[in-house]
Amino acid sequence: MAKQILNTDLELDSSQDEIPFIELKRQYSQFKYDIRTAINRVLASGYYTSGPEVEAFEGEFAAYCGVPYCVGVSSGTEAIELGLKALGIQSGDEVVTVANAGLHNTLAILEIGAQPLFAEIDPITMTMSPEGLISAITPRTRAVIITHLYGRVANLPALCAIADQFDLAVVEDCFQAHGASLDGKPVGSWGDMGCFCFSPVKNLGALGEAGAIITRDLNLAKNLRILRQYDCSENNNSHYSGEKPRSMDEIQAAVLRAKLPMLEEMNLKRRMIAQTYNINLDTSNSKLHCDYHPEQSVFQLFVVRTDHRNPLRDSLERQGIGCGVHYAMPDHLHDTCQNLGYLAGMLPETERASREVLSLPCYPELTSWEVEQVCAAVNECLAEE
After folding, report:
1. Is the Cβ–Cβ distance between 173 and 145 less than 8 Å?
2. What pairing do the DSSP bridges indicate for beta strands 94-97 and 69-73?
3. Strand partners of residue 181
4. Please, where in the chain does CATH 3.40.640.10 lie?
5. pLDDT in tens, 194-241
6. What angle do CA 370, 371, 376 make, to 5 degrees?
7. Among 205, 268, 309, 318, which has the minimal tally of Cβ within 10 Å of its Cβ?
8. What percent of the chain is modeled with pLDDT above 90?
9. Rounded to a whole number, what is the largest CA-CA distance in the chain?
10. Which residue intervals of the chain bear CATH 3.90.1150.10?
11. For residue 45, what pLDDT band results from cuts at 50, 70 and 90?
């Protein structure tokens, strides 16, 4: 089945001898008619911001995620920032997050004047550890951001139970997990809200930056819409200065509407690619670790771990195979966080993961031949090391 699905992908120029880490032109060639139709519809409407396309996408995406409310915003980071504000998080409050997810949550927390606390990760899943969350909580902690890293669903039952025990608001970071679910319940619908990023490389990607927040709470949704417009809550009369756009624009909403009906199929293709990696990568080699199960992730990234990362990355790049590191610098050791009191060695599992992770190509338009070539190159390199 996996081979049949993958072979329906685009045919490549036989002269092409490189396998890019990401190739957005392939996806555009599949959606170009729908995308052009959507953009032309917006141009003809005369509505370019906060119009009928945004409203329609909000309704469609909320239904897809199994919640009643969705608020479209200008970016994923904006979603986190406005979400925290809507929950009443303010200067002096603490928010627990992880330090291996690319800094966006940390920056959003700092932007509103709150303080990030970093929880240790699970060494297998690389998502937040329940024990790490408990250890991070202090009397000033008001919320936790649970990141579904690389498309893999975090341990939501345990983490949400701890948050409930300590009366913490739960924000789900679903930037890399569009369409993922656990026990039949979509990510983003477990906590108080779920925040999404729709940048072009995501499982559901726009043609630029866009984001959204989903929730089951009517009052939160109302507050988010006020914040999106004015940057003030119902209980705060401060006025938005207009320094940056906060609402999703009509063209991005229209493009996302065109792609949303195909998200399940695109995620299935990602799972089939991951299955091919799982079968063909030589994990009997102690230098390579890969513990992903297709039913647990939508594979926005396919990430392996190896203590030979740099030689492997260099070998792949010499062979024309794209790869990436997500993420090389943990947040708590970043210059931005130097005043928070964290030192090297305080989050050993997080730091080890940052030294070992390597992302391999994983997008729906890859062919089975390309995936097999990547596997062969990885196995060959590590066998020689």
Report:
1. yes
2. unpaired
3. 186
4. 31-261
5. 999 999 999 999 999 999 999 999 999 999 999 998 765 444 444 444
6. 95
7. 318
8. 85
9. 65
10. 2-21+262-384
11. very high
What does the H/E/C string look like for the chain?
A: CHHHHHHCCCCCCCCCCCECCCCHHHHHHHHHHHHHHHHHHHHHHCCCECCHHHHHHHHHHHHHHCCCEEEEECCHHHHHHHHHHHCCCCCCCEEEECCCCCCHHHHHHHHCCCEEEECCECCCCCCECHHHHHHHCCCCEEEEEEECHHHECCCHHHHHHHHHHCCCEEEEECCCCCCCEECCEECCCCCCEEEEECCCCCCCCCCCCCEEEEECCHHHHHHHHHHHHHCCCCCCCCCCCCCCCCECEHHHHHHHHHHHHHHHHHHHHHHHHHHHHHHHCCCCCCCCECCCCHHHECCCCEEEECCCHHHHHHHHHHCCECCECCCCCCHHHCHHHCCCCCCCCCCHHHHHHHHHEEEECCCCCCCHHHHHHHHHHHHHHHHHC
| Contact call for residues 337 and 116 (beta carbons, < 8 A) | yes
Q: Which CATH class is domain 31-261?
A: alpha beta
Any idea which fold 2-21+262-384 has? Aspartate Aminotransferase, domain 1 (3.90.1150)
Residue whose tokens read 């986190």 = 80
Angle at 60 between CA 164 and CA 184, to 5 degrees: 45
CA end-to-end span of the chain: 34
CA dist 64 and 50 (Å) reads: 21
Instruction: Give me the pLDDT at residue 9, please.
Output: 36
Average pLDDT, the chain: 91
Q: Is 1's pLDDT higher than 50?
A: no
The answer, as to whether pTM is greater than 0.90, is yes
Place of tokens 């049949």: 4
Angle at 270 between CA 321 and CA 127, to 5 degrees: 90
What is the token pair recorded at 19?
């396998």
Query: Phi and psi dihedrals of 143, rounded to 5?
Result: -155, 165
Contact 350, 118 (CB under 8 A): yes
C-alpha–C-alpha distance, residues 11 and 173, integer Å: 35
Between CA 109 and CA 114, with CA 113 as vertex, the angle to 5 degrees is 55
